[in-house]
Specification:
Number of strands: 0
Shape: flat
Order of helices and strands: HHHHHHHHHHH
Number of helices: 11
């Protein structure tokens, strides 16, 4: 994603397609190395979920920046994973019995929520070595005052984009946090299904590239 932060990726569709094709090639290699394990079409739905979140990454980076975007969607993915495992959602077994101190797990969850809230206050800045930053440093005083919060017109124009970027990052994180649910469900509920997560990588990556092309 660092490339997207530095160069204009347009609407992001070509970027996500190129990324997904690279992912699929990696999945094909794993599929061959694993000896062509059984293929479960249901696992492809996890790839479609992941791809949905991935389609938003360019929009997120453009509006709130790479760092805040990674923190926001990463924390949201963590929260979805915790809720699923702790309460046993979506037909999966609860993992509370595996915890020696469940209350510590809940404390960690609460701290993660605090981290997610804090991440929404991170402002996207202009790199110091860019022409834009140098121009800002040499602007006269009347011009620079246009960037102050007292100017309602400028702030009002930028705020909706930032808000949409935060919402998109949270939604993308929910997609990233739930994309392994179909594969996990197969392992727990399908008779004779492999317990090795690598055996579902190609299944999921096929879903990623198929949904990306669509």
């Amino acid at each position: 994603f660092a490339v997207v932060a530095k160069y204009d990726a347009g609407d992001g569709m070509f970027f996500q397609l190129a990324l997904c094709l690279g992912i699929w090639c990696t999945g094909l290699l794993i599929f061959v190395l694993r000896g062509a394990p059984s293929f479960y079409p249901l696992a492809m739905s996890g790839g479609a979920i992941w791809c949905t979140g991935n389609c938003l990454t360019v929009f997120i980076i453009r509006n709130i920046g790479l760092g805040p975007g990674l923190v926001t969607w990463g924390t949201a993915a963590l929260l979805i994973g915790w809720l699923t495992g702790f309460f046993g959602l979506f037909g999966l077994p609860s993992e509370q019995n595996c915890l020696e101190e469940p209350w510590l797990n809940v404390v960690g969850f609460a701290l993660s929520i605090c981290a997610l809230i804090d991440s929404t206050f991170i402002q996207k800045g202009t790199p110091l070595n860019t022409p834009e930053a140098e121009q800002n440093c040499t602007e006269n005083e009347p011009r620079s005052t246009e960037l102050l919060p007292s100017n309602g017109r400028n702030v009002g124009h930028q705020a909706p984009n930032r808000l949409l970027g935060i919402v998109a990052a949270i939604f993308a994180g929910c997609c990233y946090g739930s994309n392994f649910l179909p594969s996990t469900w197969i392992q727990d509920n399908r008779k004779g299904a492999s317990k090795n997560g690598l055996d579902y990588v190609f299944n999921q990556f096929c879903g990623i590239v198929a949904f990306s092309i669509l």
